[in-house]
Amino acid sequence: MTDEKSGEDYIFELAGYLITCATMALSGDREGSPSYSANRFLIALRKLVDSAVYVEGLKNDPFLHEIVEKLDSIKLEYEEILSLQMEFAVEAGKRLD
Fold first, then answer.
1. Which of 9, 17, 27, 86 could bridge across to 31 with cysteines, CB 3.0–4.6 Å?
2. Residue 11: closest CA among 33, 44, 60
3. H runs (alpha helix) in the chain
4. Distance separating alpha carbons of residues 97 and 93, to the nearest angstrom
5. 62-71 and 78-96 helices cross at what angle (nearest 10)?
């Protein structure tokens, strides 16, 4: 048996992870705090950015890799995540031009 995943397996795994994240986020305190739910969404972001490794024809996005690298050095606080969201907004503006 090999450790390599197909693109379809990887996307299926990510989709299942996101469903779990959504369930946990809506569960309130029964399945984790808001910080825990936010952390799971950031893990999903990492997995999404890594999709290019598993999905043929999908190119790596340097901007997204830069964002993921920043996750290692920020605190899981609203202001810091909002700052990353603002970086996305600026990048989206550049990509629309």
1. 27
2. 44
3. 7-26, 34-49, 51-54, 62-71, 78-96
4. 7
5. 170
pLDDT (tens digit, 9 = 90+) per residue, 61-85?
999 999 999 999 989 888 999 999 9
Looking at the predicted structure, is the pLDDT value of residue 28 above 70? no
Residue in the block written with tokens 């950031």: 42
Picking from 6-10, 42-46, 51-55, which range would have the lowest pLDDT averaged per residue?
Answer: 6-10
Which amino acid is residue 68, in one-letter code? V
Contact 16, 9 (CB under 8 A): no
Do 7 and 54 contact (CB within 8 A), yes or no?
Answer: yes
Which among 71, 5, 86 has a CA at the least distance from the CA of 38?
Answer: 71
Region of residue 58 (phi > 0: left; psi between -120 and 50: alpha; otherwise: beta): beta
Q: How many CB atoms lie within 10 A of CB 39?
A: 15
